[in-house]
Amino acid sequence: MTRLQVAVLVSGRGSNLQALIDACATPGFPAEIKLVLSNMEGAYGLERAAKANIPAVTLPHKKFASREAFDDAMDEKLREAGIEFVCLAGFMRLLSPSFAKRWEGRIVNIHPSLLPSFKGLHVHEQALAAGVRISGCTVHYVVPELDSGPAILQAAVAVEPSDTPDTLAARVLEAEHRIYPEALRMVAEKRVRLENGRAVFA
Prior knowledge:
Elements: E1 4-10, H1 15-24, E2 31-38, H2 44-51, E3 56-58, H3 67-80, E4 85-88, H4 97-102, E5 107-111, H5 123-130, E6 134-141, E7 151-158, H6 165-188, E8 192-195, E9 198-201
Parallel strand pairs: 1-2, 1-4, 2-3, 4-5
Antiparallel strand pairs: 5-6, 6-7, 8-9
């Protein structure tokens, strides 16, 4: 079986990275993580990569003159590693439109809300302020517009009356760990693709 060659981009603790690492280690999983890349030195996600014997690269974004220069360097690292598909997992950088277009259809993100609701940052605060009864998470294709790509998978999480942003975030994160590997499996098995700005399911 030819496995899809994947890079995971992280900025922090990398708990979704760990969920993907664990999934890829199971027999018959159709994708393989070949590279972990971080824009933050000391990100715990890099330690997770080391423990799993996955090559890791740090590109501190502050050392680059522009967003485009950073993205070009990142693109070069991905291509050097033979990467076919990119998963964003807590990668706290806005991607330049040119990078998003270059990898269009081959890059996904996980966002801690039921998109298109509650885009951007402070998502759980947004959900609680809006008084919604249901929140959740979305694996979606990345397009140049923030958090606007078509969804591949979503999971709903009930909002409890006693919830704080932290307690809601913890339950949503459990759902993220469940659906991100499944979405990657769908992509690798060619059960979903991006076509004319829409997710098309086989």
